[in-house]
Design a protein that fits this description.
518 residues, alpha/beta, seven-stranded mixed β-sheet
Length: 518
């Protein structure tokens, strides 16, 4: 197995200024008045910034802890740490996990669904396939909208677009009265065959907006104008459910950036690798479900092309999760839709996205013992607050990062560019108390076990995007990114007999770099 380091020579001999509290004069001269392009990626543990001045051929990077209580603070903190004047930024591209976290954590709006009379149960029933055929105790996912808040309207459009039953506005008005009384915050409208003729949905939407101007509204023909009733309905419901929170986040981000003098263009990453305006992101937040991870995949494809490898596997291990994606002939693989939360119990979103497999194994993933005493790692994460034990932020549960510190794989005095000192002794005590002593292991052996279990989980993710789809991972190069990716990539490559590993420049800022390339 050979390892390539993709350095500055592959970035047109670009100079690099790393943002630190004690910044040197050279960096200040470069960035004080230049017009630059900036990308900011908010992860579960860290918020990353990377900037590029095409004229000077110079990169700038900054990294701060993510601020879960108000994510926009992390963006502003990164900009301040970088020393970039907001007024000199021509374009800021942003990726965030706000949309997917809102859905997975079920912290979205109180949502109602308005449908064609006779189709009230389509969303609840879903498809007839059963993910776990032999599980007698299998439970389907809990819907985002209850049957009580699924209301029917008298109307009918045929598959060819012909109107069989004209919409009755009185029926829509009656539904609005019920929705007002229930105090709903968002409404999804999905009529039968509206992809062929959306006129009835437009009429219903206008009526709802007039009666309930403060309610977030999603019309299925605007979100997904395709046939397949359940998939279109599920996607529209997801969009409505996360809409108010994502819309509020985007509004706060724009306001916060304007407050520090930003006057450039703000773009939001889409799950398919493209970008959209804040206005479109507010209307169609389901399109930004995986807006963070796709940046790293785009960058992996470009790195592979620069080094002459058109077939690569992108491996991104951050603070909360690890992601894997297959890239063939220089292009990321696109999926027509996906299940947020997993196939067995997730919510279907039928929008194109770059195909990515995610597992709960990041630097902050917690090591724990199950009911029979077996050692497990993840998917629970310490995140940025309180973070791993070694962060000195009040964390009490041992994590993969703690194990890496105990094993000497991380330098406690040079973490985060030397701006954050890690407490190796506290990490050792935590692993000894929570893992080693109960399992009658030496603390070093326990730390090694944590790392090996994490490596096995991540190997399965790489297998899923390659072997499970008929591709031999030995025919691919493995591109490591994320703050923890280079630490673990060689073990994964050995496990899967992958002959070449590529460690790029800025691995911990790779998703942000990919956003610039988008």
């Amino acid at each position: 197995m050979s390892i390539s380091s993709w350095g500055s020579s592959h970035l047109n001999s670009s100079s690099v200024c790393r943002a630190k509290p004690a910044r040197d004069d050279a960096c200040d001269r470069i960035w004080s008045d230049r017009v630059i392009f900036v990308a900011v990626d908010i992860g579960g543990t860290f918020t990353d910034l990377i900037g590029f001045d095409e004229e000077a051929g110079a990169f700038l990077q900054a990294k701060t802890l993510t601020t879960p209580a108000e994510l926009t603070h992390g963006v502003i903190d990164c900009l301040k740490q970088s020393g970039v004047k907001a007024g000199t930024i021509a374009e800021l591209i942003h990726g965030s996990t706000t949309a997917i976290n809102t859905l997975i954590e079920r912290k979205g709006a109180k949502t109602a669904l308005v449908v064609t009379r006779g189709t009230r149960d389509v969303y609840i029933i879903g498809r007839g396939n059963r993910p776990e055929s032999y599980n007698l105790f299998f439970h389907r996912h809990r819907p985002l909208v209850s049957r009580r808040l699924t209301l029917e309207v008298a109307e009918r459009v045929l598959s060819g677009g012909e109107i069989e039953t004209p919409i009755k506005k009185a029926s829509v008005a009656e539904a609005c009265k019920t929705l007002k009384a229930e105090g709903v915050e968002a409404v999804a409208v999905c009529f039968l065959h509206s992809y062929a003729n959306p006129e009835h949905e437009r009429i219903a939407g206008a009526t709802i907006r007039k009666a309930m101007p403060d309610v977030y509204l999603s019309l299925s023909h605007e979100i997904l104008r395709e046939y397949r009733e359940f998939e279109r309905m599920s996607t529209t419901v997801v969009n409505a459910y996360i809409g108010p929170k994502v819309g509020g986040y985007v509004k706060n981000l724009k306001s916060s950036l304007a407050g520090i003098g930003f006057r450039g263009d703000l773009s939001i990453m889409r799950s398919n690798g493209g970008v959209m305006t804040p206005e479109v992101a507010t209307e169609r937040p389901a399109a930004m479900m995986e807006s963070g991870p796709v940046g790293g995949i785009i960058a992996s494809a470009r790195v592979g092309q620069a080094l002459g490898f058109l077939n690569v596997i992108s491996f991104d291990m951050g603070g909360t999760t690890a992601k894997a994606s297959l890239i063939r002939e220089g292009e990321p693989t696109l999926a027509p839709g996906y299940y947020v939360g997993g196939y067995a119990s997730g919510h279907q979103v039928m929008l194109p996205m770059i195909d990515v497999v995610e597992v709960g194994a990041g630097g902050g993933s917690i090591a724990w013992r199950d009911d029979v005493g077996a050692l497990k790692v993840g998917p629970q994460s310490a995140g940025a607050d309180p973070g791993p034990i070694c962060y000195r932020g009040g964390g009490t549960e041992p994590t993969i990062t703690d194990a890496n510190v105990v094993l000497g794989r991380l330098d406690p005095d040079n973490f985060l560019g030397g701006t954050m000192k890690l407490d190796a002794a506290a990490a050792l005590r935590g692993i000894k108390e929570k893992i080693a002593s109960p399992l009658q292991l030496d603390p070093i052996a326990a730390a090694q076990a944590i790392v090996e279990i994490a490596n096995n989980k991540m190997s399965l993710a790489v297998r899923e995007v390659s072997v499970a789809k008929g591709f031999d991972p030995r025919d691919f190069a493995l591109v490591a990114s994320g703050g923890a990716g280079p630490l673990h990539v060689c073990a994964i490559a050995r496990e899967l007999y992958i002959p070449k590993v590529i460690v790029p420049l800025f691995p911990s800022h790779f998703s942000a770099l990919g956003m610039l390339l988008a």
